[in-house]
Amino acid sequence: xxKLFLSLMLVMAGISVFAQCNYNExxxxxxxSTTVMLxxxxxxxxRDGRNLTLDGRELSDAEVRELVGAENYETYLGAKKQITTGxxxxxxxxxxxxxxxxxxxxxxANEDPDLVYLGYIPALAADVACPLMCIFKGIGKGRMNWVAxxxxxxxxxxxxxxxxxxxxxxxxxxxxxxxxxxxTFSLNF
Length: 189
What we know:
Elements: H1 2-18, E1 22-27, E2 34-37, E3 45-48, E4 51-54, E5 57-58, H2 61-68, H3 70-109, H4 113-118, H5 120-154, E6 160-173, E7 176-188
Antiparallel strand pairs: 1-6, 2-6, 3-4, 4-5, 6-7
């Protein structure tokens, strides 16, 4: 209820500021914004490939260990190994499919049945590599997503705010263009 009330107050304050002039456009100057975390552990963690990101920034293994804790870090390392193993099986699958295609096409073109039968060996390897690829990558990605979700559940109680400068044009009349300086303030719960 407090979050809803605070959000409504901020929206109403924003509406009253812009009601005093005709709003045309907002220009963002090249000034970096400042984000301050009120409690540790804020931000949104997500999986990006075989790594985790926090608000779009890729995290190192040491940062992940610090953020998620020892038990979830072990799950993260296991998931990372599973995704890597899945990628290896992807390469094996692609290579064996290519070898099968080469053997079959060459055997058919040269009318050599032995070469066609030889093409079945990499085809069998591809049949084994495909499910292993899917299993390892699927389980690894699921475990990595679980680590990110657990972090996001724990950090829901954090509050952060972002303050950045802004420039806006307010026209009191069509002939007159006034520039105003201000601050953009946003709260993240």
